[in-house]
Structures are given as structure tokens and as C-alpha cells.
Amino acid sequence: MRKILNKSFLLFTVLLLVVLTACSNNSETSGKKGDSKESGKAVEAKIGVVSYLTGPGAAYGEAITNGFNLAKKEINAKGDVKIDLVVEDSAGKQEQALSAAQKLMSDDSIVALLGPTLSTEMNVVGPEADLNGIPIMGTSTTAEGIPQIGDYVFRNSLPEALAIPAAVKKAVDKYKVKKVAILYGNDDVFTKSGYDTMKKTAEKMKLDVVTTETFQKGQADYNAQLTKIKGLQPDLILCSALYNEGAVIMDQARKLGIDVPFVGGNGFNSPQVIQIAGQAADGLIVATPWFGDKQDPKVQEFVKKYESEYGKKPDQFAAQAYDALYIMAEALKNAGEADRDALRDSLAEIKDFPGILGKFSFDKDGDVVMDPTVLIIKDGKFQIFE
Amino acid sequence: MLLEQLINGITLGSIYAIVALGFTLVFGVLGIINMAHGEIFMFGAFVGVMVTSTLGWPIWMAFLAAIIVTAILGYMLERFALRPLRGKKGVSHLAPLISTIGVSILLENLSHHLFGAGNHPFKNAFAEIHFTIGSITIYVVQIVIFVISVVLMMALSYWLSKTRAGKALRATAENLDTASILGVNTRQIITLTVVMASAMGGIAGILVGMAFNSVNPQMGLSMGLKGLAIIILGGMGNVKGAMAGGLILGLAETLIVAYGDSGYRDAIAFLAIIVILLIRPQGLFGQKTSEGRP
């Protein structure tokens, strides 16, 4: 009896061992398959995604992962590259983003990371990825200095430092601007950094800054600042505000009889402006990486596919994510193998990649080089500004 | 330019004054700084937005609705946050203050849920009526705001000094127990005061909505703090002081932006208040009302 038990136990152990080795064998071969150049046609790769999927900012994560999944489906259907996504949640928290990223990094079959969603998260995840030698690309991180974290850190999200000068330049050319007034919120990091960019841009373009005025978040009355600006008669107003305050400022400005155009940053770029300010919103100029009404067949096709898949219009986060995975696929195809270092090198060489956001290249740091689309609100809707 | 800025300053000052009137009324009677006043004011503004923009009713309906809603809020504030604490042994004199802070947080979050975090436009034809003299644009709303604030102040002064209810209110303010012994229904008087002050906040809310076209859940806090500063400047519990203090702060803020640096707007305005208080510690008009209080 005892012997039989012993034997069956032995048998069971052996069986278990066999299963285990089979498993590890399996994963090894799949890993090898990805690694080997000779496998020929399709480059197979696993890419890790860290995204903000639960919590107050979950809407961002949802749009971003939707963008990834749509791109993945198309890329895999094409067949040049076969991509598998492993998605982890960061909940918008630095520590959770880091542990999620570490989990993905420790899996050797994962060749690159996409995300995390927030710049603050990227500031902790980026250095870790750089240390581990895995390429990481942010699709929604706009803060200064992200790609400068290291050689392995990239992004395809348009930073403010690129968007604001583009909008200012177009406005200056069109309206022959000489004098500008600057108005900004001085109690918010985001609007303050927008102001710094505006000031630098104005200095570089040798514009005459007639006055610099400030306001605070939640302020209701901007008449004093605007009356002063009106008296100085600028040709253009640079306004670094979030859309909530910005819309009210425009409304009060138009009521006072200020009819010059406004240039705003990314925080000002929202359809909400039109909703709040109505007609007064006409004449707001912003630069954006993404414009859903663009008369480009590629853009329209993406919008249609996205809408039929997810039942809503894609926003800039979905669009940037969609392009990001395409850039990854392109780099993988050029690298010819699913290897972290080879992928990094081939990512750095991406140039004039034709995505739905426009022609895209990386600079030497891995930051964005592209011409943003400049929009103006006219007749109550965003239109291309020319 | 100077004239335009003066108009801006007087408009802003008149709104401050109406907010401060509500503060000063409650302080004068109850000796309580009502921290929820700013949020009640904000609710009044939201009611105005709902009535005019969403329902499309005329502006006088908005005033009526805002007065009714804020009066109810005022009643509930007194009934549930203030009355239970009054006259009880062992209740700290700071307790009502803390309890009104609690109500203000509750109301702010409630409006977040009900109306969302963003700015709501106050679309109304009346707010668009204006005329121009030279390069100066004057909106009828700006004149209306000034007139309403003056009328409210005068009506309140008259009511307090000449009518029976006003006298009862002042007696209650002087000494609650004595007034009660002499036959004043103090509970009723206190409720009336808080309700009136809240309704005034509601009126101010609609005026802000019309003048600045900006209504959001955070607007109560900054307006509340300004109102507090004004009643200290004008003299605690003094109606004329609230009016004068409001106009002074409004004009000071506007003129600092016009001829100085907008970054220092609040700093200089409040510095001015500190200087005035150093010279006149009881406030501009403050005399007996605040001294009679232990």
C-alpha cells in the first residue's frame, strides 16, 4: 500500500517536472522566435504598456489604450510586424507606475515600454527604464525635460515649448504683429511654464511686450487687467490660461471691445472654450498635434474606425497613442529583430514618419520634431489657421 | 482709461459690498463669522445660471429663484449648524465658526457634484445691453449693480434703525438674554437675520454672474475671504462700513492693476487694510456695536 502511494507520488512528481520543463521550454522557444532574425517574415515583439486606467484620470488611460489596441489590430493585420501588448495600470500614482514598469521590464521577452500617462510618473519610470536599457516612449507626457532623462527615453507627445512658438509665429506672420500683451495665471505650474515659453518666444521674435498681467485661478473679474491692456492697444494677446479661466477672459475682453486675436497654450485648447465663451471665443489661436477634422484621408479613416470601434470621437491622447505604436512597429521593422538595444537605435533614426499627427521625427534627445497644426476658432468652431 | 477703471472698480466694489452686508448682518447679531456665506453666494449664482440658461426664464425669475433657494439654505444653516450649538454649556465660542466652515465645504462639494467643476456661462440678454461714450463701454448691468448695492444698504440701515423688527434685531445683538426677557422672540430674530443675509448673498451671486459671466464652484471661497476682510475694514457689524469697505477694496484692487502690477493686486489691497486698521483698530465706521461685545 505504502509502496503504491510512494510510486504514484513519484509518478506525479515526474509528470509535474515534465510539465514544468515543457512550459519553460515553450517560453524559451517563443522568446527565441522573437529574437531570431532568421524567422524571416514577421518580427514578433511584446510591448509593455503602463497606463492610467483607474482613478480620476482614467479617461486618459482609456483613450490611450484604445489608440494602442486599434493600431495593434491594424499592424498585425498587415503582417510585417506582430505585436503583443501587455497592459498594466498605474492609477496615476508614481509608485504604482514604477512597480508596474519594473514588472514589465523584468520580463525579458518585452522589448519596449509605452507610457506612463503622466509626466510625473515618467519622471520616476524613465530613469529606471534607461538604467535597464529598455526603450520607453511617452505618448502623453508634455513636461520639459522628459526625453533628456536618458538615451532610452522617447516621446511623441508635443511639448508646450514647441506648440506655443508655432502658434505665435503663425499669428505674428498673418496679422503683422508688433506689439503683444501677455496675460497669465501666476498660481499654477502649468500656466506659469506656458508664460515662460511665451516670454521667450516674444523675445526671440523681437516683439514689443507692452505689458505683462497676471491673474489667479478661479478669479471672476478680469476687467481691470483687460482695460489696461485695451489702453495699450496690442496687436495680439498671449494668454497662458487653462480653458476655464481663459474662456471667461475672452468673454470679458470682447465685451470691453478688445477684438485682437488671442494665442493660448495646450491648456486653453478645448472645445469647452466655445461652450463657455460662445461667440467671444472667435479669434483664439492654439497649436495642437491633433485635429480630427483635418482633410487628410488617413485622419478621417482613423476617426471613422475609432468611432465604430469605441463609439466616440478620438481625442489627442488616442491619436498620439495610435501613432506611437505605429512608430514602434516601424522601428521594429527597421531593426529586423525584437531586441531592446537594436530597437532603441532604430527608434532614434525615425525620420519624417507619416502618421495621423503629421510628419514625425525624433531629435537627438528623443524629443518631438514636427510641425504642429495651428488652429483658430472661427464661427464657433476650430478650423485650420492659415 | 481712468474713467473705465473707475467703473470697473465701483462695479467690483459694489459686489464686494453686497457680500459684506450679508456677513456683517450675521456678525452683528450672532457674533459669528459665517464662513458658509461665500458658498451660499455661489449657490445663488448657480441658481441664476440654471434659471436663465437652462430653463430660459427671464432675469427677474432668476432673482426670485435665487433669493428663495438661498433663503432656504440660510434657514437650514441656522437650523442645523448654528442653533444646536447655541446656549449649550461647554460649547466653545469657536464651535459655530467651525460648523459654518463645515457647511461651506459641504456646499462646495455639493455644487461640484450637481453642476460640475467647470465655469458656467451666464447667458442673458439683459447682461448684453450696453452703450458707449467715446471709447468707454458701459454695461447697464454695471449701473444696476451699483444701484442695487446702494439701495440694499439704505434699506437695511432704515430697517435696522426705524422699524420694530429692526429694533428687536438690534436689541438681540446687544444682549440676547435681556432681549429675550423683554419679550423679543430671539430665536425668530436670529433665524430671520441668517435668512436675510443668505438671500443677500443670493442676489450678489446673480449680479456677479451677470457682470463677469463666470460661475464656478470655487468662486465662493475667494469672495467669502474678501467679504471678511471688508467687514473688518469697515467695522464689524456696521452696515455703512460694509458698503464703504467694499468700495474701497474694489477700487484699490482695480487701480493697483491699472497703475501698478497685477501680480501684487491682493498683496497691496490687503496691506492697505492692515494700515487702515493700525490707524483705526475698530475699523472705519466701527464704534459701539463691536465694543459692546465681550
TrEMBL record, chain A:
Domain Leucine-binding protein: from-to ranges: 45-378
Superkingdom: Bacteria
UniProt cross-references to CDD domains, sorted A to Z: PBP1_ABC_HAAT-like (cd06348)
Presence of keyword Ribonucleoprotein: no
An individual GO BP term: amino acid transport
N-terminal signal peptide: 1-24
Keyword field: Amino-acid transport, Signal, Transport
Family: Belongs to the leucine-binding protein family.
Name of the protein in its database record: ABC transporter substrate-binding protein
Organism: Neobacillus rhizophilus
TrEMBL record, chain B:
Single GO molecular function: L-valine transmembrane transporter activity
Pfam annotation, one family: BPD_transp_2
InterPro entries with a match to the protein in the record: ABC_transp_permease (IPR001851), BCAA_transport_permease (IPR052157)
GO biological process: D-alanine transmembrane transport; L-alanine transport; L-isoleucine import across plasma membrane
Family: Belongs to the binding-protein-dependent transport system permease family. LivHM subfamily.
Superkingdom per UniProt: Bacteria
Keywords, ordered alphabetically: Amino-acid transport, Cell inner membrane, Cell membrane, Membrane, Transmembrane, Transmembrane helix, Transport
GO CC term (a single one): plasma membrane
Membrane topology: Multi-pass membrane protein
Subcellular localization: Cell membrane
Residues that span the membrane, as ranges: 6-33, 63-82, 94-116, 136-160, 189-212, 267-285
Transport listed as a keyword: yes
UniProt-recorded name of the protein: Branched-chain amino acid ABC transporter permease
Annotated organism of origin: Neobacillus rhizophilus
Main location: membrane
This protein's record includes keyword Transmembrane helix: yes
